[in-house]
User: Fold Adenylate cyclase from Plasticicumulans lactativorans.
Amino acid sequence: MATEIEHKFLVVDDGWRAGVERAVAMRQGYLVSDAVRSVRVRVEGDSAALNVKGAVVGIARREYEYAIPLADAAEMLDELCGQKVEKTRHYVRHAGHLWEVDVFEGANAGLVVAEIELAHAGEPFVRPPWVGADVSHDLRYYNSQLAVHPYQDWR
Assistant:
């Protein structure tokens, strides 16, 4: 079984921009999303995937991802998914770890979060100076939640 171990932080300034290795636009929507599971369709650049995630236990959860044809993903997003999440993901290396900085667009514009995936829950990592509050346990920041309760509606 695949397990995702991830920490998520708010980004406090643009210091990360100097270290960007690459960036990719993403568009995603959810076929299923509830407290126990989610099934996501994502177009990432010129590829697409179907992703299945289980319930979160601490910072870990089951995750399975399968490549699908780009045309199928586009059709699912347009016809089967409700609200979408659009963002650009920037890959930034810091102190030996790869960080993913997501700059959200559309209804979630203004939100910038950084994520780090770890090999195991106790793996040490150095927090970059551009990350702030740890929001790993705040469900509002999950992409599946941002699709139905976008950041612009929080204010």
